Amino acid sequence: MKIAVVGATGLVGKVMLQVLEERNFPVSELIPVASEKSVGKKILFKGNEYTVVGMQEAIAMKPAVALFSAGGNTSLEWAPKFAEAGITVIDNSSAWRMDPEKKLLVPEINAHLLGPKDKIIANPNCSTIQLVMALAPLHQKYQIKRIIISTYQSVTGTGVKAVQQLENEREGIDGDMVYKYKIDKNCIPQCDVFTENGYTKEEMKLVNETKKIIGDQSIRITATAVRVPVIGGHSESVNIEFEKDFSVEKIREILSSTPGIVVQDDTDKYIYPMPAFAKGKDEVFVGRIRRDESNDNSLNMWIVSDNLRKGAATNAIQIAEYLHKAGLLA
């Protein structure tokens, strides 16, 4: 089938192309799409060369599905136009995530909600995806009351210019500053812009998207998101309070049997998740699983995943795979 990748020359777009090839998605024709300044550039995919086209030309080429990773404003303007042409859009921006009419999808959790009328499907925020992968099976069993999240997020979450800033700083090169401060040998307690309540947009995405995906607005959630000088993946320290008591052994058993999760939790052998190990992988890694001894029915976990893969490209392509298998793509 014809597949469009909107934002094909960007950091996530390039990973989408890589994941499409790795997973052998049935692409009969690739349509790489980007901004006007990139139109005419060449993209290699499965040994073939494709020319980058603009939005209107991509719509005229009638792909079955369009994977969007070109920013919220682009998605707000163009996703409806693709959808009106009968093209299913899987959007990686924040544009449609909290729209009550749009599905917010992590396939392992809620793909069953999709139907033939869903022409714009939202891909969750990267830090949310890895979080809910671990939370959803535990919520089913023990009913989550409250979550406290602290994130340690890779510069790749900001994009290629942030990666360049980090590399420039490490090499002593003066260059463009994406962040307001130096990121090398530093931690910046700000991911995205601040909102009126004092939290950043990234922190509020964790709150609101988690509730929507899990399907429970009663869960109390608070978050602090921090940018760290890391390339490879996001890490999260998560404290969960349940309605019901649990055993740590059962928690490990549930997570180990959950598709897409790998438990790395043997402190005797210094085995725990780290971005250096998660980079380039599609799984969500969970470790440091232990009871919170300061509060009843509470648990601490450490969750790590490659934010460009399961946190973005892989999750979007898994949605497309589900749509294809369910016969929901034209």
Structural description of this entry:
- The chain has about 325 residues and is α/β, with parallel strands linked by helices.
- It folds into two domains: about 140 residues, NAD(P)-binding Rossmann-like Domain (Rossmann fold); about 180 residues, Dihydrodipicolinate Reductase, domain 2 (2-Layer Sandwich).
- It has ten helices and 13 strands.
- Helix 1 packs across helix 10.
- The protein is globular, with a radius of gyration of 20 Å.
What order do the helices and strands come in, and which of them pair?
Blueprint: E1 2-6, H1 11-22, E2 29-33, E3 42-45, E4 48-51, H2 55-60, E5 65-68, H3 72-84, E6 88-91, H4 107-110, E7 120-122, H5 126-142, E8 144-153, H6 160-170, H7 201-214, E9 220-227, E10 234-242, H8 248-256, E11 261-263, H9 275-278, E12 284-291, E13 298-305, H10 309-325
Parallel strand pairs: 1-2, 1-5, 5-6, 6-7, 8-9, 11-12
Antiparallel strand pairs: 3-4, 8-10, 10-13, 12-13
Helix pairs in contact: 1-10, 5-7, 5-10
The CATH level-2 architecture of the largest domain is identified as 2-Layer Sandwich
Overall outline: globular
What is the count of distinct domains?
Answer: 2
User: Helical element count?
Assistant: 10
Rg, please? 20 Å
Fraction of residues in helix: 25-40%
Task: Give structural attributes.
single chain, 330 residues, alpha/beta, Rossmann fold, Dihydrodipicolinate Reductase, domain 2, six-stranded mixed beta sheet, five-stranded parallel beta sheet, 10 helices, 32% helix, globular
